[in-house]
User: Fold this.
Amino acid sequence: MSPTNLISKLIPEAEQQDFSDFIYYLTGTGSKYLLRNDIWLNWLKWCRENDKESDFAENSAVGRFLARVPEMLFPDSIVLILHRYTMARYNIYRLSADRKQMQKISVNRYLDYKDAYICDNTPRSNRDALELDFLPFSDYAPTIKNVKNVGNGISFLNRYMSSNLFQKPEDWGRDLFEFLRIHRINGEQLLVNPDILDSLDDFLSALEETIDDLGNHDENLPHQKLKPQLKSRGFEPGWGNTAGRIRETMSLLHALFYEPRSADLENFISRVPMISKVAVLTPHGWFAQENVLGKPDTGGQVIYILDQVRALEAHMIREFELAGIDVTPRVLVVTRLIPNSGNTTCNQPKEDIIGTEHAYILRIPFYDSQGAIVQDWVSRFKIWPYLDRFARDCERELLAEFEGRPDLIIGNYSDGNLVATLLSDRMNVIQCTIAHALEKTKYLFSDLYWKEMEKDYHFSCQFTADLLSMNKSDFIITSTYQEIAGTETRFGQYESYQFYTMPGLYQVVNGINLFNPKFNVVPPGVDEDNYFPYTETHRRSASQQAYWQTRLFSEQSGDVHGYLENPDKPPLFTMARLDRIKNITGLVEAFGMHPELKKHCNLVVAAGTIHIENSDDAEEQNEIRRMYELIAAHDLQGHIRWLPSVSKAETGEVYRIIADSRGMFVQPALFEAFGLTVLEAMQCGLPTFGPIFGGPSEIIEDGKSGYLLNTSQPDLMAEGIWRFVSGFAEDPDKWHQVSEKGMARIREKYTWARYSHKLFSLTKLYGFWRYTESREGMVKLDRYCDLLYHLLLKPRAEAMEH
Ligand code: UDP
Ligand code: LCN
Assistant:
């Protein structure tokens, strides 16, 4: 039976000719493969050229269909269309050469086409490819049904476990009781004395009596005074620091056993002091507290982790205080020791983290295959051969430093997540994954053209490591929802791992289940001591202000390029690493090509270095060259200042000075996984522009708390900025409105206090889940991942060294 022709179902008859004409137009562009942005820009162009009415592009059936097409492939005379009919769900269509027949094809078939088409030598049906499929392991875990709930796994799991507690009290109630009975910190028994309370029934009657008794005490009575009485009943410390809090915690637990509501489990479990030792893995190194900016891969991740560690420690200190126990929390950031580390401290085995009491950086060297310590910095793309040994060394060091196992292992970025996975396996410790940036979405076509890119990027190792850690980790936190499942019209970063092919290596037909409750959105915050509104003048330092006022706009200095003819014009400011993806040169070009922008604004750039000989990174050197070319080509002298990167502690004041001059912050990246600078600038009160590609599209509410730009082309970017700047003339208050809304947005959604509360709740809830869930599925997944690690990833990584 031939497959059904779906064209009439998808495109109404009245628009079928437009659809056909547009596809014909696309085939005429000569592209083999188009992604969403190009498809959409071509569509807008086609509509203009064909005099379509203004709303046709967006509102016609063809427009609505195309808005949901992330990829089109043009093999021979047919067209393959990936249609994302709702978030994270797809149909794939094959359109016949006459564009009249549209038939569904399977994911396997689609990947075969891609293989065959991209690699001319691959046979059309690439049945030889290794097929990776993680879907069968999904059967062992509950799955979220509604895509709107993706990223809020904690609520789902709460509901699931609470209803189990209610419906199967004999199993789940016992599990919860056992979970509490085994609870110890640093060898000290907490909550329940297992010798006194050895059955669930005894425990529940003791709980009821104690709740009643506690009601007779002053609620502020300290725990110490109640200790003997509680102990005699079988209750150990950890319930609270006062009679009132102990009673509250016990009542929450009591309600869980008798009339559980979904929030009770999270409320109760988040009070249980379970975590005191946290290991944070970030192996690729160049991780320190000063002078580490400038390497291509030491940006936001370092800042994020240092702020995170401070927030986690502060949270644990407060938690132990409220629980009425005397425990010192410990957080260790484990990274690579680099003997040749310039003016940084990356060659020191240990470094205390400023602003904490007991957190420190622990550095462990990489060893090569001959057993010698690797002396120099190694790019994150080339560190794969060292990680297996590094993980083993970490295990030993962590056991020694913590005098036992950690309670939580947090991985960062692909390398840290892989090491966290290996450690979590060996030590049987709960694992949290944080991607920061999944390079697969950053580097377009990096799966299809992996072979060409392998020499520099080694994506075969990186994407395999990503698959392993995302599938194995207990929970994954992301900074935005779009990082997981994208937006109505754009791919999510994790979503891009659902199915893809790396021709000649493998085809992934189900790489990750986005509907697994392990996914949780937990956005980071900003360091509120450094980043505060420009209006809080009492907090600002006059001398720092004076210094940066001159440095930004007028100082003649050997490390600054350019001058401003009219320094009073509002500055467009940008600050980032000078690598390709940050697209600083795209902004310079946009500014240069737009006469009105040039007339009304100045451009101030803080990025990299102006001296090419000071850069040891090829990508950065290219960008430096391009900066000079653009400044000359667009005659920008008198309109631009280009400064080297700014040290972290100074960046807050820099944003504020720009805000004093009614300036704006522009983050022009081609793709930004999250974008800490966007948060920082908004928090300081700068109207902020960010790309529609990636995290900023979720941080900024377009037109309200900032503006989103299509950064793929300089003219589109310039137009977007000009729309706002030109609006000042009509509405002089506009700048203030956007500034206010931006600050409010960050205050509301992005704070480290909220972050740490959520992270610990997740750890505890998923800890309980790990304890109760059926291990059968996990064992099978472990075996599958073991094979992939030992037979595919490890040999590839080892081969890199030679
Ligand atoms: N940063 C800085 N000085 C600079 C450029 C950047 O201190 O000259 C900091 C910036 O304040 C932010 C981080 O580096 O905290 C960059 O993080 P983001 O998430 O924006 O990008 P990433 O570099 O991680 O891709
Ligand atoms: C890495 C990135 O590329 C940024 O987009 C993030 O903001 C940063 O890490 C912190 O998560």
About this structure: The two ends are 53 Å apart (CA to CA). The pocket of 1,5-anhydro-D-arabino-hex-1-enitol (ligand 2) is lined by residues 300-301, 304, 436-437, 479, 672-676, 695 (CB under 6 Å). The mean pLDDT is 93. The chain has four domains: 3-105, 155-182+191-269, 277-434, 537-750.
